[in-house]
Write a structure and sequence with these properties.
With about 270 residues, the protein is an alpha+beta fold. It is about 25% helix and about 20% strand. The chain has 6 helices and 11 strands. It binds a DNA duplex (14 and 14 nucleotides) through loops.
DNA sequence: GTCCATGTTCTTTA
DNA sequence: CTAAAGAACATGGA
């Protein structure tokens, strides 16, 4: 759901309103969405200004003027929006960051997302794979050579590459002409290079269209993405392939629905 | 009422 | 021991 293009779009739409602004008050409606549990979040946020907002994988990292950091993960159904203080509070609004003239609200019905306080320590991303938009083909090849899982499962693993989810793995594999069941360590160097290009092209195109809105995703201004209209395979089961006349197929891999064109992505 | 959607973590299996 | 597969989580919509 929110994957790299959606998370980046949220960051891009948050920044113009938020950077340099001072946090006036903090309301945490559910303490269990915060890690570490029981941490005095408002005590550390009030009167601080937001110095930077960045993305790493699917995480939205806030840096304060004193160097402290925290990040928000949108999980499956999380939304971060800029709201007027007068706007009615929606159900499942877990956190409100109040600024002088507006609020940032974090709403997440399914609560797979949350807020993680990092403090001043070096960002703990040791377990995260490289950024898809920066990854080099040899880097991806080295990682894939070490695992015998189907490529679909490997690309969903955030320690292999950080930021892809179910939509963009399916779309990238289609763009690269690779069947999702292909074993990761069976893919030639040439094909991995093609896959690297396909991932970058797919993500950049999705970014240009503000990400994909299936149901829950909206950017910080409340606007939906448009890339779902251009999906080649995701959620297009039994529809005609856009490149040939075959019908898109759906299988389940790693407990996730997986869509592909049997002709364009031969096994 | 049942089933399905999915990102991540935890548990079980091989 | 490690790698991989599977279950669990939570809620709303079909």
């Amino acid at each position: 759901m929110p994957e790299l293009p959606e998370v980046q779009t949220v960051v891009d739409t948050l920044k113009p309103r938020t950077l340099g602004q001072r946090i006036v008050s903090v309301l945490l409606n559910r303490s269990d969405v915060l890690t570490p549990h029981g941490f005095d979040l408002s005590g550390h946020l009030i009167s601080r200004t937001v110095a930077a907002i960045d993305r790493r994988g699917k995480r939205i990292i806030f840096t304060l003027d004193n160097g402290n950091r925290f990040y928000i993960h949108l999980g499956m159904s999380g939304r971060l929006t800029i709201e007027s203080p007068q706007t009615d509070l929606l159900k499942h609004t877990h956190l409100i960051l109040e600024f002088k003239t507006f609020q940032i609200r974090f709403k997440d019905p399914r609560r797979f997302g949350g807020i993680w306080w990092l403090g001043s320590e070096e960002f703990a991303d040791a377990k995260m794979g490289p950024e898809p938009l920066l990854i080099r083909p040899q880097q991806l090849a080295a990682c894939l050579a070490k695992t015998r899982r189907p490529i679909k499962n490997a690309l969903l693993d955030q320690t292999v590459i950080a930021g892809l989810g179910n939509i963009y793995v399916d779309e990238s594999l289609f763009a690269a002409g690779i069947h999702p069941l292909t074993l990761a360590n069976d893919i030639s160097a040439e094909k991995v290079a093609q896959l690297t290009r396909a991932i970058k092209q797919t993500l950049r195109k999705a970014l240009r269209h503000g990400g994909s809105t299936l149901r829950d995703y909206f950017d910080a201004n409340g606007d939906a993405g448009k890339f779902q209209k251009l999906h080649a395979v995701y959620h297009r089961t039994a529809k005609k392939c856009r490149r040939c006349d075959s019908l898109i197929e759906r299988i389940v891999l790693g407990g996730r629905s997986t869509h592909f064109c049997p002709s364009c992505q031969p096994h």
